[in-house]
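Hi support team,

I submitted a single chain yesterday and got back a structure, but I'm not sure I'm reading the token output correctly. Could someone confirm the output below corresponds to the sequence I sent? I've pasted both exactly as they appear in my results page.

Thanks,
R.
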Amino acid sequence: MRILAGIFLCSFTAISFEIALTRIFSISLWYHFAFMIVSIAMLGIGVSGTVLSLYPKLKNSKNLGIYALLLSLSVSLNYTIANFIPFDPVRLSWDKIQILYIGVYYIVLCIPFFFFGLIVSASFVEFSEKSGSIYGADLLGAGTGSIAVILLMSFLSPGQTVFAVASSAALGALIMGRKKAAAILIILNISILLLNPDFIRIRMSPYKGLQLALKYPGAKHIKTYYSGFSRVDVFESPMVRFAPGLSLKYLDPLPKQIGLSVDGSDINAITEGTAEFLRYLPSALAYEIKKPKDVLIVEPKGGLPVLVARQYGAENIYNVESNPLIVDVIKNDFKEFSGFIYNKNTWKGLARSWLKGRETTFDIIDISLMGAVPSGLFGISEDYRFTVEAFKEYFSHLKPDGILSVSLFILPPPRTEFRLLNTVLHTMEETGIKNTHNHIAAIRSWGSICMLFKNSAFSQEEINTIKDFSAKRNFDLIYYPGIKENETNIYIKTPSPHYYDAFKRIITKDSFRKDYIFNIKEVHDDSPFFHYYLKLKNLKEIYRLTGRKWQYFIEEGYLLPIVFIQVIILSLILLILPVAAKRRKRNFSVFSLTYFAFLGTGFMFIEVPLIQKMILPLENPSYAVATVLASVLISSGLGSLLSQRFSHLRSFYMVALLSIAVIPYGFLLSYFIEGISAHSMPVKTMFSFIAIMPAGLLMGIPFPLGMRILGQKNPSFIPWAWAVNGCFSVLAPILAVMLAMAVGFKWVFMLGALMYALAFVVLKKSISAPRLS
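Hi R., thanks for writing in. Yes, this is the structure output for that exact sequence:
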């Protein structure tokens, strides 16, 4: 029982540290480097299995307390070391030593997971007959940790959170008999947490927006705020001049603005009061066309779109912001400065979810994709705000003559605006709108685009307003029903009217979408990667077009295949070493490899799409991660414990049942999400947890079943099987995301079911295999 409690606490530490590191990487580097953490964690676990295979003396259960102490110590110490490694991805293009620093990151940060892997793997070897209990304690600890770490990061910085969760492993060591050393570690960790010295504070890349803004003369950092899923910094800087696409005809100074940054980037601003400059923004076009009564602002951030609506006399302004921390910061600490923008009719979450089930309709729905500093979005990040299904929701809540306004920065080479147009066109056609070319208008300034869409056709009076608004502010027309080429490319001269040509070709549905260098196909909820534009066949031409800068490909998601290749190479080394060193007998080596490889892949092929799909109803990636991990891991832990208690659950047919049980998730999950979206967050979280549990219970049975069989036939294979499962659990999440981008989440679920079906076939054959010595 003491060992199980120790495993629970160490698993709690390992998963909490892993999740905390994803937040730390998002802040210190960029969001896409957080994907490295999964491979780092499972690499450490895989190495532990390989080491135990090569050095059997390490399997002694008396060492478990020592491993727990080393886990606790390495979590806090190695985080501190990693924080001082001068890796910066921006420097890779001119400083080749940065490649070495990536390797150092891997080594330093995988060490805590190595010690955790030793604890669990050694326990399986020593107590294989209790595999269900061991695996259950491991999963229950991980499930609990996935919830607790989000709560901890709501009131502690990620750096402080690391020292808090390190104490959990020390407590596990104390329970397993290492009392004095564990007590010292607990006291040390808590003391550092409370003192919060400079060395545990996250070192942020000097090339991130916040750091650059603070280098300006007179810049001042005001305050840092934390939540479980983001960090918001408030600051003053001359760099913050937030008036996206402001007409060059406006010559007066802007009102005072205070900068906002999310995770050190995504710069936005809080603007003091209202001013005439708001009428000189491209995003004001919708308000010039239609005097609004009811307006919905989607993602108001610092509140500039709210001020535009106020400037034009909107009576009822509704704000829906996906980052709750921004709302809390402005509402609590900057309410007077901002003009009380969030003190009325403000909701937190995804606008499309908020709209679900409501009958309110709007004169204008205003969506902004802009911050104070133009920036792209990582290609493999899910974005449910701009799928066909999302735009259907927006259109269904427009009044008959209402306007959907979308504003975005011009970020060459053009691709976001073209995909957006294509997605909205597809939405219009699916909702039965005829002659879609009459329902679209677009203008551009020197730095931004404003696109308008309507359920009804634009009238001649509205077209005249668009032309007059643009001419008075020196904005260029891109498209309106009946536009002529000589009406475009007047004020912002380019060699050719490429925006006019592209919009016209997309709207008239010629071969532009097929021929264009980037993928601008419409996006659906089943593969919501709106910001992923690469076409593999055009990589060479895209490389030339982007100035021969490989960083663009990293931003677009090609870090994923690079990490995938790295992990394959490392996994092969880890898996081959024990076999080569000890010349294992073939038939049970094949079982250990194939069965546990299928389990690791199948588990992740179900868990990853569940997380990505549940972002939509739970409205935030961190909430989705916490809910899905908690549900899958806790229910799998319970399933493992039940299989230890009830012998009929240890039948190999349970693996086949799991394979069948997974299939409905691929087909029915979207309908489930549709059904719960209109409910409150606690209700959605509860229903999500319950819906995932049936599959989770079954997912906890196959692994301890395989470990039990290994323990009976040849226990020496257990560490190697642990390494196999760990390595394939690294490969599978990366592969799952790549597959989701190509074929959608539904087919990733189907492949997960196939993995468990193959595991069943292998297990059934192995049952009749003789004992190996």
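A quick pointer for reading it: Residues 371-379 have pLDDT under 50 and may be disordered. Let us know if anything else looks off.

Best,
Support desk
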